[in-house]
Design a protein that fits this description.
Radius of gyration: 21 Å
Strand content: over 45%
Bound molecules: calcium ion
Number of strands: 33
Shape: globular
Largest sheet: 8 strands, antiparallel
Distance between the termini: 16 Å
Helix content: under 10%
């Protein structure tokens, strides 16, 4: 049984505004989403239980022993107790006559953890904003970990801490950028400035602002690395492609989102902060690393997936659709995943996978699903399901591609490979917003198993924007 408690923060009513923009895209596009077409489904086994009732509460804290015992009962089943939980960032919408409207409610965060064989969640809402795009753990400079949230409309970066059972926030950065939309859209943590402690690197809508937030002497200093009118930054990634031991910043500027998806031009750019080069002349040196022409990317991943000890950049290039005379929209150029190394020509990214029939893909996550110490990528497309991608001997050639689950989808389709039970193998967590379910996938003997771990009655009452791991002790 789910337990939940609720804290409502802030005092400003949510405005009907920017989320309508997101929602506008939904009704028409949702028609494209297809269910599992019988034989078209993957061969995955289906775990049927919500939560997992098979496992008795544990009496020992030896998680590895628990995991082994549990998996002997049912391979891949969730252990009764998990040392890590999940942070789920949402927007939510008012319900009228049992149906979701386009009117956004307060930004919502759910903190999910599992103990005694039960998944439990706690809800935190912030009426200052109408969406949390992401929430993640940030260890404060004083050492105590808190929860960092990225809010949209109003744009706010907040750090939450719990005292005497109540969550409260300190606003690290809020700004009206001067355009039509104000959103903190994505952030990553890393020591990009070479200070010895991590900074927060943030991407925003709609004035193309990319900024670092640096803590020193009790205050947070915001430094803008870039600003371009009428520009959305969809994602930030950090990594060291050039192998000098210092992380660069990668961001995805594009024209504002369009509903017709005919063409939306974008790039992936790299910022090397001046402090990495020992110059104070400019805040950062900006380079275009992927030139996507009349297409754009909302999702990128930077990391070493192929195991050569060097990071590379993966860019999910959104597809293009066109309307036929009958008014039906069809995909003329499907989603592609392109790979870039440090010296790849910006126009010559290597296509490692194509997702036929889809024009949108907003999540790419890396991890080791089978415990062979080699990493895979999981790609979550809007309407064509979840895909497992494995590099071959040539990491810039076409990768192995395997359907995990056709019956999984959503506008964002937030997904995360992470090892909550800490047994050395990653599980896959996916928010299938089309079904209003959070699902967990594990692999046994090459086959995936699906288990629903959290669900809501009205799927479209919420959109899941991000999933991140969190130590369970922080959210219990
Ligand atoms: Ca570097
Ligand atoms: Ca690599
Ligand atoms: Ca693997
Ligand atoms: Ca695991």
């Amino acid at each position: 049984m789910m337990q939940s408690s609720q804290n409502r923060m802030g005092g400003v009513s949510p405005q009907i505004s920017t989320l309508a923009m997101y929602m506008l895209a939904l009704p028409g596009l949702a028609l494209v989403a297809t269910g599992c077409g019988g034989s078209a489904c993957s061969g995955s086994e289906r775990g049927s239980a919500e939560g997992d009732q098979e496992n008795e509460p544990s009496t020992t804290t030896d998680l590895k022993a628990n995991a082994a015992e549990d998996s002997a009962k049912s391979p891949g089943a969730s252990p009764a107790d998990l040392p890590m939980g999940l942070l789920l960032a949402y927007s939510q919408f008012e319900i009228k006559d049992g149906k979701p409207t386009a009117k956004p409610k307060a930004a919502r965060l759910e903190m999910l953890h599992r103990s005694g064989g039960q998944w439990s969640s706690e809800v935190l809402e912030d009426a200052d904003s109408n969406v949390f795009h992401k929430a993640m753990v940030l260890s404060s400079p004083q050492g105590s970990p808190g929860l960092l949230t990225l809010g949209g409309s109003k744009a706010a970066v907040k750090l939450w801490a719990r005292a005497n059972g109540k969550w409260s926030a300190k606003t690290l950065w809020t700004e009206s950028f001067g355009g039509r939309f104000d959103r903190m859209r994505d952030a990553e943590l890393g020591d990009v400035l070479g200070r010895g402690t991590p900074q927060i690197v943030v991407g925003t809508h709609d004035q193309g602002v990319v900024a670092t937030l640096e803590h020193s002497a009790g205050t947070w200093t915001v430094t803008e690395l870039d600003r371009t009118p009428n520009t959305f930054i969809h994602e930030i990634e950090l990594g060291d492609l050039d192998g000098d031991g210092k992380q660069e910043i990668y961001a995805t500027p594009s024209e504002p989102n369009r509903l017709d998806a005919k063409a939306q031009s974008g790039q992936v750019v790299r910022y090397v902060p001046a402090s990495q080069r020992g110059t104070a002349k400019k805040t950062a040196i900006r380079t275009v690393v992927a030139d996507l022409g009349n297409r754009h990317a909302k999702e990128i991943f930077v990391g070493d997936v192929d195991g050569d000890k060097k990071d590379e950049l993966y860019v999910v290039v959104e597809g293009r659709t066109e309307k036929s005379e009958s008014g039906a929209r069809r995909v003329v150029e499907p989603v592609e995943i392109r790979r870039y190394e440090a010296d790849t020509d910006p126009k010559q990214g290597a296509v490692i996978a194509t997702i036929e029939g889809d024009s949108m893909m907003r999540f790419l996550t890396a991890g080791d699903v089978d415990g062979d110490k080699k990493r895979e990528l999981v790609a979550a497309s809007f309407s064509q399901g979840l895909w497992l991608l494995r590099p071959g001997s040539n990491a810039s050639g076409e990768w192995g591609k395997e359907l995990i689950d056709r019956e999984s989808g959503g506008f964002e389709h937030a997904s995360l490979l992470t090892d909550l039970d800490q047994d050395g193998t990653d599980e896959l967590y996916v928010a299938s917003d089309q079904h209003g379910e959070l699902r967990r996938y594990t692999w046994t003997s090459g086959r995936s198993r699906r288990e629903v771990i959290h669900k809501r009655d009205i799927p479209r009452a919420m959109m899941t924007w991000n999933i991140m791991p969190v130590p369970a002790a922080l959210v219990k």
